[in-house]
Description:
By secondary structure, the protein is of the alpha/beta class.
Amino acid sequence: xxxxxxxxxxxxxxxxxxxxxxxxxxxxxxxxxxxxxxxxxxxxxxxxxxxxxxxxxxxxxxxxxxxxxxxxxxxxxxxxxxxxxxxxxxxxxxxxxxxxxxxxxxxxxxxxxxxxxxxxxxxxxxxxxxxxxxxxxxxxxxxxxxxxxxxxxxxxxxxxxxxxxxxxxxxxxxxxxxxxxxxxxxxxxxxxxxxxxxxxxxxxxxxxxxxxxxxxxxxxxxxxxxxxxxxxxxxxxxxxxxxxxxxxxxxxxxxxxxxxxxxxxxxxxxxxxxxxxxxxxxxxxxxxxxxxxxxxxxxxxxxxxxxxxxxxxxxxxxxxxxxxxxxxxxxxxxxxxxxxxxxxxxxxxxxxxxxxxxxxxxxxxxxxxxxxxxxxxxxxxxxxxxxxxxxxxxxxxxxxxxxxxxxxxxxxxxxxxxxxxxxxx
Length: 425
């Protein structure tokens, strides 16, 4: 089957892009031919036979940036210019999507978060119109919904709110939903009487991961650390919902100068660097500048060698004694499954409404906080995992076996088979 994937950006390290790459890998393994249309291809050369770039579809295009600004952040009193802009660019994108569908004679479409979250209104409307006009079945991979983002997608313009309500998520007779957690499944049913299939985020448990290699053996040295240092890794972007301040407070409570916190992500998505500066102030106030390191300059998703090494996330996990994951909200939790794959214990916050129903209840052994409160009991449990190597390994192996059972590529293949069968019916 020829499957066409529609996505705003691909190749980066955000959750949608990472999961899309996994879907592509599994779909190809299943024998399907994959075609991609996107506004942005990050860190990859475009394969013209299977990949098509439409600049207007990028979240960072002038068209999308202006649209979001005027719709939600700095609206004009008169909404006519904005509405005309949306009509114009949704038509531009619609025509290009239809031409793409026809050029490659696609059998099935897959919309990656573009038909559920109004982060690019014109693209969402364009996808809907293209599906109506071509009659092609479409699976919408719904990572986020507008109502999950507070007032982020609430506009002072009534017409924009109508667009959000009527167009997101896509609700056509030939559209089928894949959601990433049980809460989303229940909410979609309650709000719109739409059925969906829960497809968890997964990792490839068939390949080596987080192993010490000749390439990464000097990682501690390259970070200016000593061999005796004990590393806790925060392998996430720097945004407020990641709860990184709790990880910093943990370092303070451990009272051990050998324990370091390494934060691998950057703060590009932190508006105005406000949260990043709060973390810097906290580190200063707690006098932890020698124990907490922002190391985004040393890490990429895949890693690369050159004059200065760029380590991968696998390299980071290879040197982690444990991982901190004190998020207050996640659509699922890529970093959790990564740590399980890496055979590293995890200190986690019970982020609502996903962690316990979708992950924790499956039996994973973690130190779990409630509302990011580091109790004396939790601190003691974390200390034991950090300093007791045997316990550390036992927990890691136990979690790995569970992860392989619930969050592997085998699970993804089963779910995709079910979705495709549904879309073809």
